[in-house]
Specification:
Radius of gyration: 31 Å
Shape: globular
Structural class: alpha+beta
Number of helices: 29
Largest sheet: 6 strands, mixed
Oligomer: single chain
């Protein structure tokens, strides 16, 4: 829901840990103002028809804001990483924002269609019908209800009236139940649900699927309240608190009545049955799918479990989720849309668990909760939801809760007398420069033209660095037990010494060793050092710098030249569908990780499993994962620099990648005519190189050369198939060629 709110309100940070508490609360406030105002206006329109155009106009504006937000994200995603980070706290990938934009456009179009009453009338048969739909005069039925009970759910019978001045309903009795196509309140509820669903799907896509969702999960008290407040407040506002109902009537409408022994016992029994169903489905699912698929699909749940490491946080999660979601879905929506549609909507807005057993479980839970709402009330349903969440979260707390331990026997204690690492563990490995990593030598980095990063990365200090000055860095994090932020419990470092590549992994054997780890890292970094990371601009470096501030230590990363390989890889290998490090390892380096590797989303849970049990096996998996991340950066960085200096010799570059590199050079003012001419001769069928060369020589008034390359561009365009749409370009180019011929002939 928080993600959905962010989609409606503003561009927000989607990649943990970029967003701040202030951003979270500003987003929540914006959502409450926008949707709260629309809800108030819709309730007012129920009694004041003149307000209806305002509501319809407001919903159109809401739809426009959603589309504008997505268009801005789409535009920002095509900017360089460094420019993105100047505007927002995280970066966006066009490969993800384009499908997210399409999804949002579809849901926004559907939301706009709901503004027309005939569309809502077509949808009305899908939902429960009111007891009386119209008066004898054809207008809406007025509220003269006779209150009865059917399985605990309020059912009303109405008497139509032709009174010119209808009487208001009795404030203590609920209004007409069922979906009414003429009601703007019901229409707004559908619109909001569509946007919430669209936002969840778009987030799933933009995060990169299940793996991205797992990596972006972080449970904090601020985030929990930001999730809870919009659902809680909008539920009360949406049913007309103080506009169409007083407080007592509102509680009755939402089903917030008291508990008794029977309803409490039913809640406990329903919770027990749901938990049995949960474990049974999970067990059956593990027998149906492969182990690899099961691990990938359950990664988000594991990451969530690892984020909840204290009893009080488990209580907070269970309470806020139960109260907020049940008041919204079973209290506010089910009396309008009915049990089955509401259960489906509830499942769809939890789409982040798509294609996992959790999808089926969530739907079954929603149906059971819907029947409990019918049989009892929303308060009973809240109790079931609370117990159901709490039992699972308490099991997670017991599983992931860290315990103080002694030393780590797998850490290289021999290093400690020689390094300032006496108070944290260190795993030491050395590799000769001649060692192959995939299909590439690690020592290739020693011949890398590091000084070229001054132009490539627009950072003059790189001109003073050598390959031996560079430190390759990657961190692994886990949420702190008190919810105070991420703990960088392992920092992998690699640099070249005379004997070869040195790899050191600093490790917190207990969370209390964090300050010692940070001090050890600072001792290794000198004033002449430089940093290479993969996505470190938005992840590794901000986290480490924040932890240095927390501990009051001097920040060694504050003034270092920093090269982010993720951003560079996206600019070089544009043809790849994914630019995650694992994809680059496979497609570019030819690296295949062993079964010892673990997905990044499982790292926090494995670390707490190590702390909890003392078993070194989880830590060994994490260390392998971290070491592979660091090692892969070494040849990858060398390949990026090779592609920059001589794309025609890079080996792994396709024609389109060479174009991307030269476009990058042109953008930063490092265009090279010699490189362009070499590529134009290597790829004569690519018109872009010839076009750039012709423009270059035309700018220098070298008309013969400009004409030559314009004619080469024409030949390249003529070689392309008609489906390439070159007709207009050819016409314009031929006019330009005639102009250049006149200039060349004097």
């Amino acid at each position: 829901m928080t993600t959905a709110c962010a989609k409606i309100a503003s561009i927000s940070a989607k990649v943990y840990p970029g967003g701040t508490i202030l951003e979270t609360w500003l987003t929540t406030l914006a959502v409450l103002v926008i949707l709260g105002t629309l809800s108030l206006m819709a309730n007012l329109a129920e009694r004041t028809p003149s307000a209806r155009p305002l509501v319809l106009g407001g919903v159109l504006m809401l739809n426009g804001l959603v589309m504008l937000n997505e268009m801005l994200e789409l535009a920002v995603s095509f900017l360089p990483e460094d420019e993105q980070l100047e505007m927002m706290s995280s970066t966006l990938d066009p490969n993800n924002t384009v499908p997210a934009f399409i999804i949002t456009a579809i849901t926004t179009a559907l939301a706009s269609a709901l503004l027309w009453r005939p569309v809502r009338e077509r949808l009305a048969p899908l939902f429960p019908r009111p007891a009386a739909a119209s008066t004898a005069a054809g207008g809406p039925a007025e509220d003269f209800p006779t209150l009865t009970l059917d399985r605990g759910e309020v059912v009303l019978s109405y008497q139509a009236t032709a009174s010119a001045t209808p009487a208001a309903p009795h404030p203590s009795k609920p209004e007409l139940l069922g979906f009414r196509p003429d009601s703007l309140v019901h229409m707004l509820a559908l619109v909001i649900m569509l946007h919430v669903f669209g936002a969840q799907v778009a987030f799933f896509v933009s995060a990169g699927g299940l793996e991205g969702v797992a990596e972006n999960i972080a449970v904090t008290p601020a985030g929990l309240f930001a999730n809870f407040l919009p659902m809680f407040i909008l539920s009360f506002v949406g049913v007309g608190l103080f506009l169409r109902r007083d407080w007592r009537a509102t509680r009755l409408r939402l089903g917030l009545t008291g508990l008794d022994v029977r309803s409490t016992a039913a809640a406990v029994g329903a919770t027990f049955l749901l938990l049995c169903m949960l474990f049974m489905v999970a067990g059956l699912w593990s027998l149906v799918v492969s182990q690899e698929t099961l691990e990938r699909q359950t990664r988000a749940s594991e990451a969530l479990a690892a984020s909840v490491t204290t009893v009080w946080l488990a209580l907070l999660v269970a309470t806020l989720a139960a109260v907020g979601e049940e008041i919204a879905f079973r209290g506010a929506l089910q009396p309008i849309f009915g049990l089955w549609p509401t259960a489906l909507i509830f499942t769809l807005v939890h789409i982040q668990y798509t294609l996992t057993p959790a999808t089926l479980i969530i739907f079954v839970v929603a149906v059971v909760l819907g029947y409990m709402r019918r049989a009892f009330n929303t308060t009973t349903v809240i109790l079931v939801h609370f117990f159901y969440n709490l039992v699972q979260l308490l099991l997670s707390v017991q599983r992931w809760k860290p315990r103080a331990r002694g030393g780590c026997s797998s850490c290289d204690q021999d290093e400690q007398p020689r390094d300032p690492l006496r108070n944290c563990g260190v795993i030491a490995m050395d590799y000769p420069a001649e060692r192959l990593h995939g299909q590439h030598l690690l020592g290739r980095w020693l011949q890398a033209p590091v000084q070229e990063l001054a132009a490539m990365w627009q950072e003059p200090r790189w001109s003073e660095r050598t390959p031996q000055d560079v430190i390759f860095l990657d961190i692994e994090i886990a949420p702190l037990e008190d919810g105070a932020g991420p703990l960088p419990f392992m920092v992998g470092l690699a640099w070249f010494a005379p004997a070869g590549l040195v790899l050191r992994q600093l490790c917190c054997r207990t969370p209390e060793e964090e300050a010692a780890l940070l001090s050890a890292l600072a001792a290794r970094i000198g004033p002449a050092s430089a940093l290479v990371t993969f996505s470190g601009t938005r992840f590794d470096v901000p986290i480490l710098r924040a932890r240095y501030r927390v501990h009051g230590l001097d920040d060694p990363l504050a003034d270092l030249p920093h090269f982010d390989l993720f951003s560079a890889a996206r600019r070089v290998w544009r043809g790849l569908t994914s630019h995650r490090l694992l994809a680059l390892e496979t497609e570019v380096l030819g690296v295949q990780r062993t079964s010892q590797d673990v997905p990044g989303g499982q790292v926090p849970g494995l670390y707490y499993a190590y702390l909890n049990s003392g078993d070194l096996t989880p830590l060994e998996h994490i260390a392998y994962h971290n070491a592979m991340d660091v090692l892969s950066m070494v040849p990858l960085a060398a390949l990026v620099l090779s592609a920059w200096v001589a794309p025609y010799r890079a080996g792994a570059l396709e024609q389109g990648d060479c174009v991307a590199v030269m476009q990058w050079r042109e953008k930063v003012g490092a265009s090279d005519p010699l490189l362009l001419s070499q590529l134009a001769r290597l790829y004569p069928q690519e018109p872009w190189f010839a076009q750039q060369l012709s423009a270059h020589y035309e700018g220098r008034t070298e008309w013969q050369r400009a004409l030559h390359w314009a004619q080469m561009q024409e030949q390249a365009l003529l070689s392309l198939p008609p489906s390439a749409g070159t007709g207009l370009k050819l016409g314009q180019l031929q006019k330009r060629i005639k102009h250049l011929q006149k200039k060349a002939n004097g």
